[in-house]
Amino acid sequence: MTDQQPKKSVKIVVLGDIGRSPRMQYHALSLSDNGLKVNIIGYTDSSPLTEVLENPNITITQLHSCNFDKGPRFIQLILKAVWQAISLFLTLLITGSCDYLLCQNPPAVPTLPVCRLYCLVTRTRFIIDWHNYGHTIMALSISPSLKILLKIYTFLEKYFGQSAQYHLCVTYAMKEDLLDNWNINATVLYDRPPHIFHPITLREKHDWFLKFCQKYPEHFPLHDVGNSGDINITPFTQIVDNDVKLRQDRPGLLFSSTSWTPDEDFGILLEALQVYETTHDLTKSLPKLICVITGKGPMRQHYLDLIASKCWQHVTVVTPWLDASDYPTMVASADLGVCLHTSSSGLDLPMKVVDMFGAGLPVCAVSFRCLEELVQHGVNGYIFKTSDELSKLIVGWFEGFPNNDEKNRTAQEMRRELTKFQETRWEGNWNLRAKKFFE
User: Fold this and answer.
1) Is the dihedral of CA 28, 29, 30, 33 positive or negative?
2) Does residue 348 surpass a pLDDT of 70?
3) Shortest CA distance to 294 belongs to which of 329, 340, 263, 257?
4) Residue range 223-264, pLDDT digits in tens
């Protein structure tokens, strides 16, 4: 009897919050499905997917952060990079050898230099998954006095980026840019929704609305629609003769998710919602509107303060942090999605739109350079440039809701188009394009 071959192993490096890095978690699940042992190294500020936590082939090694908030900004950035470099390199060494190292970029510094050094020392195959460019994100917030840091960062990102054996990227626009400017030949692995994002039944929507309303009673009081203990009715759905139906007097449900960063201007959405509020007062053809915005990030409190300053009577904004298991259900329950991601480089695509499409939700997305690789205006969603354009799209979508036959036909046609998008899922796409680098 021959000994069984030991499983090959992969380390996935995410110098960020693993729970907010869905693409890297999907990589881990695909690698595990193909018989590899996976160790994800990163921060655990939020909980990863249940499928990742419960997978016997996947382990998570937590990195520990250290805050440097005193002294000049220049010194803070240097100290942070040094701490991250030391802690990441020691963690890579302590967790033992592996056959492959898959690294998320950005951030490029210190991730790429440290991972390259580890791969040289241990003779490990180095693979970079290019989500964006770190230097373009850095350029959004760095002061003019620190431009020398930006030049150093860009050089390191290019130099160590070129050192990997294989490269993946998220769009053909990025593939072309990597090849033209840095002589890096990357394989395009489009984000595609995993099977957890799919259209759901009315019964599933009803159960979710019950749970959601009980969690946020200040915004969705069940006693306004019946007995607070009645499980047959929510503001959106009701059970009649044991059959779930959508209420004719339900509010419209608008959904968006965000990381509350400078490349997503939520002022655009708030201005559009103000127009909706005003238009509602002028016409009798619009429903009340519930806008659910989920996510965490540095500018969250800034926008929460702006939302709190509004005195809207017909628009309600709710900003929950949804569990990974609840997020797909919320997406599939909405009437229309909004995406304000613009991309610091103009070369990556918003994963949130991919998730919405997977759940059958049409999207209004703000325009940028390569968005049309994903969103086709008037076919599977809408593209806008200004708050005025967005407000017209939202008002037009919900005018006469829910009994606008023309708009209902448009929504049905878009959802039929999205079923074509749903035919290609992450799992199959990964096996076709990425699997070969781990064989």
Assistant:
1) positive
2) yes
3) 257
4) 454 445 567 888 899 998 889 999 999 999 999 998 887 778
Q: So what CATH class is 9-192+427-437?
A: alpha beta
**Fold: same for 9-192+427-437 and 202-423:** yes
Residue in 30, 3, 25 with CA at minimum distance from that of residue 12: 25
Tell me how far apart the alpha carbons of residues 416 and 410 are, in angstroms, rounded to a whole number. 10
CA 272 to each of CA 105, 251, 259, 291, 303: distance values in angstroms, whole numbers, following the listed order: 33, 17, 20, 12, 14
Distances (CA, A) of 84 to 14, 94, 109, 161, 337: 12, 15, 9, 18, 36
CATH H-level superfamily of 202-423 = Glycogen Phosphorylase B; (3.40.50.2000)
pTM here?
0.84
- Give 429's contacts (C-beta < 8 A, 6+ positions apart): 189, 190, 192
pLDDT tens for 160-208 read 999 999 999 999 999 999 999 999 999 999 999 888 899 999 999 999 9
Cα 215 to Cα 227: distance, rounded to the nearest angstrom: 16
The ranges assigned to domains in the chain are 9-192+427-437, 202-423
